[in-house]
Amino acid sequence: MGSARGQSKSSSANPGRSDSRPGSPRKGLSPWGDTPERAVLVAVDLEVRSRRKGLVTPGEHFGAGPSGDAAPQTAPSLPSDRFPASSISSGVHAPGFDVEESLAEFRELLLSAGGQVAAELIQRRPHPDPATLIGSGKVEEIAAVAAFTNADLVLFDHDLSPTQLRNLEAALPCRVLDRTQLILDIFARHARTREGQLQVELAQLEYMLPRLTGRGKAMSQLGGGIGTRGPGETKLETDRRSIQRRIDQLKRDLDSVRRVRRQQRQRREAVPVPTVALVGYTNAGKSTLFNAITGAQVLSSARMFATLDPKLRAIELPSRRRVLLSDTVGFIRNLPHTLVTSFRATLEEVAQAEILIHVRDASSTYGGEQKAQVEKVLGELESLSKPRIEVLNKIDLLPEDERAALLSHNSRPKPETTAVAAITGEGIPALLAAIDDALHSDPIVEAELRVPQHEGAALAAIEAGTVIHSRDYEGNLVRLSVSGPASLVGRMRRFRARQE
């Protein structure tokens, strides 16, 4: 065993302050809000499948980057091609994600939370240790690395049971967080609306509640020494009941939000305007694409989970039909179930959409695995059977030959995928045409109309809502050959030209 190299790479984000009140979730990774916290990242690979293929190697660790404190190091980590997608255990990492790719994604999560990488370690085991997940020897090694790099916390790219979390906190010289806690912290930083804040707080408290037990002597008001005996209940029980009351209140508040959202949706449904929802892996470029299509100025960021609150904008398609485009929260592998449950009000926009636009990062080296994770969450939302348009975004980051090959598919009739570069606007017209083709509600119909010139309102509606193929004047009449939404053309039935 050796030590890990340190890393001084920092994030420009300002961590929020923590709140130490019982039952109040933390609002940022750093408790002081001035300097980023330094974290040791620990990835755990349960190599059930790798063992069968003879690829098991002893646990190793490696430095987080080329800069920072250097220290002796053990054998370097194996290249990712030694661990093909089919050999990685699905117990920790999603199928298709090797441990190095998972660790790279975990590093991005930390940076999104405003933290700083102090060191990175990998532990490969055939099965998890019930007490500590990683085994007592690795715990000692992590403790030494954390002390050497002056780390403020240790982050595990795996969910920890209450027992494992308690044992690790007792053995390590700094705070311990698991993957779910880190994602919840990022959500807490990015929630802006009251609805988003309620949803994040509910998810945090539901995760915290079963993990209160064993948080140390400070959690109890009863003891065995002089002056500690007496009537009363433990602080643990008080805190648990306080948190449960807050959870019940949050659920009532979110029910009110759902009712308001349902009423808004019913009002929208009174006017037949279909909804198209952007879905995809976090940081695939959904918000940038949303801005490119709608002209809006919603926040788009390279950080993960920059968008938490749904945003709706009306857009006009080439057929002159209007639809509502919705930007939604990004998905990620092993998305905490508490988040899926808490954000159900937000994700209802996905369930109600007529078409889903699955935005994928064309430059990602594991796009297939990201696609599988998005489809897994869509299955949980019972939306997997909805019509979907696959959009390969960020083609501007590809080599010229690959980019040209992808763009050539856009000109095909009803292509399986549409290639775009949201940041430059390239490919957006082809995407709008694909949405037009996939939309079944309010179909496009053709009609011959004869409208008196004094019917100014009707002529204006036809001009604004249909594609006019020809226009002729016959005395006081305007003869029009148009194609447009059936709802609009139906309102003009009194002007339909009779078949001769």
Cα distance, first to last residue?
91 Å
Work out the radius of gyration.
28 Å
CATH class categorisation of the largest domain: Alpha Beta
Number of helices: 15
Which sequence of strands runs across the widest sheet? Answer: 7-8-6-9-10-11
Q: How would the global form be characterised?
A: elongated
- Give the number of domains: 4
**CATH-defined fold name of the largest domain:** Rossmann fold
Largest sheet: number of strands, sense, barrel closure: 6 strands, mixed
Task: Explain what the structure shows.
With 500 residues, the protein is of the alpha/beta class. The protein is 36% helix and 18% strand. It contains 15 helices and 14 strands. The protein has helices at 48-52, 99-112, 136-148, 162-171, 179-190, 194-208, 235-270, 286-294, 337-342, 344-352, 367-380, 400-410, 428-438, 456-465, 486-491, and strands at 38-46, 61-62, 116-125, 153-156, 175-178, 275-280, 311-316, 322-327, 355-361, 388-393, 417-419, 444-452, 467-474, 477-485. The protein is elongated, with a radius of gyration of 28 Å. The model is unreliable at 1-28, 48-95 and 214-232 (pLDDT under 50).
